[in-house]
TrEMBL record:
InterPro entries: ATP-grasp (IPR011761), CarbamoylP_synth_lsu_oligo_sf (IPR036897), CPAse_ATP-bd (IPR005479), CPSase_lsu_oligo (IPR005480), CPSase_preATP-grasp (IPR058047), PreATP-grasp_dom_sf (IPR016185). SMART domains: CPSase_L_D3. The keyword Cell inner membrane does not apply. One of its GO terms (molecular function) is metal ion binding. Residues 224-278 form the ATP-grasp domain. It comes from the Eukaryota. One of its GO terms (cellular component) is cytosol. The gene is r. It holds the Pfam family CPSase_L_D3. Keywords: ATP-binding, Ligase, Nucleotide-binding. GO terms for biological process: 'de novo' pyrimidine nucleobase biosynthetic process; citrulline biosynthetic process; glutamine metabolic process; UTP biosynthetic process. This is CAD. It comes from Chrysomya megacephala (Oriental latrine fly). The keyword Cytoplasm does not apply.
Length: 282
């Protein structure tokens, strides 16, 4: 009566919360049964790590030692009337066998992920152009993207299409399952860039711009040091985390000031402040 949400959904949420509490109580002594149940309920390695107070990588290592890895299934587009042979693939732990084989040799292209309609056209075109060029070179391709409003997620654009979120866990799982030749991150914008260093640390082969170069461009301190070494002038800047210090800095250097998130390459959420009020509004 309080929420007007159907009891069926409320019970599902209750189950998730109760199991999350169990994970918190177990901590780092997670059993294989608990870990498998968590994955089948949809918990990511990161969420399990937060509950158990261990790192995402520790959960991944533990999961692989226990032999808990996802299966690849095809989306059934023919309502079970005859065997499905679609190119729409997804990962799941609620299965006992894979729908496809893994011969290896595929090159993975990571898409842009979730974007508002009309704002991701440049990433989509980059991904499509990349897939076409790889096909012209005779290389089999895999696309990882979960934005249905893109051409890159058309069933015939690549050899294998994974409708999956763009996270370190998912991309690394697909990379290892497919015995991939390498991963191209530079076509998808900010989301793929965010996982570049994590993939690199796990010895995934990143093609194109190196993860270290991406990190050097996104990390303001590293980028600033590089400009200093090259003798390139740069405006005064500072990384700040609260209103008071931001206002103090802007008043010291004088308005207008450019304000933007600290670890991104894209221009999203960037603004120019002309006064203290502009800064607070941003």
């Amino acid at each position: 009566n309080l929420t007007k949400i159907d009891k069926w959904f409320l019970n599902k949420m209750k189950n998730i919360i109760e199991f999350y509490n169990q994970l918190e109580e177990s901590g780092s002594t997670l059993s294989a049964e608990q870990l498998l149940k968590a994955k089948r309920m949809g918990f990511s390695d990161k969420q399990i790590g937060q509950a158990a107070k261990i790192t995402e990588l520790a959960v991944r290592t533990l999961r692989k030692e226990m032999g808990i890895i996802p299966f690849v299934k095809q989306i059934d587009t023919v309502a079970g009337e005859w065997p499905a042979a679609t190119n729409y693939l997804y990962l799941t732990y609620n299965a006992y066998e894979n729908d496809i084989d893994f011969p290896g040799g595929y090159t993975i292209v990571v898409g842009s992920g979730v974007y508002r309609i009309g704002s991701s056209v440049e990433f989509d075109w980059c991904a499509v152009g990349c897939l076409r060029e790889l096909r012209n070179l005779g290389k089999p391709t895999i696309m990882i993207n979960y934005n249905p409003e893109t051409v890159s997620t058309d069933y015939d654009m690549c050899d294998r299409l994974y409708f999956e979120e763009i996270s370190f866990e998912v991309v690394m799982d697909i990379y290892e399952l497919e015995h991939s030749e390498g991963i191209i991150l530079s076509m998808g914008g900010q989301l793929p860039n965010n996982i570049a260093m994590d993939l690199h640390r796990q010895q995934a082969r990143v093609l194109g711009t190196s993860p270290e170069s991406i990190d050097s461009a996104e990390n303001r301190f590293k980028f600033s040091r590089m400009l200093d070494r090259k003798g390139i002038l740069q405006p005064r800047w500072k990384e700040l985390t609260n209103h008071e210090s931001a206002i103090a800095f802007c008043e010291e250097v004088g308005y207008p000031c450019l304000v933007r998130p600290s670890y991104v390459l894209s221009g999203a959420a960037m603004n120019v402040a002309y006064s203290n009020q502009d800064l607070l509004t941003y």
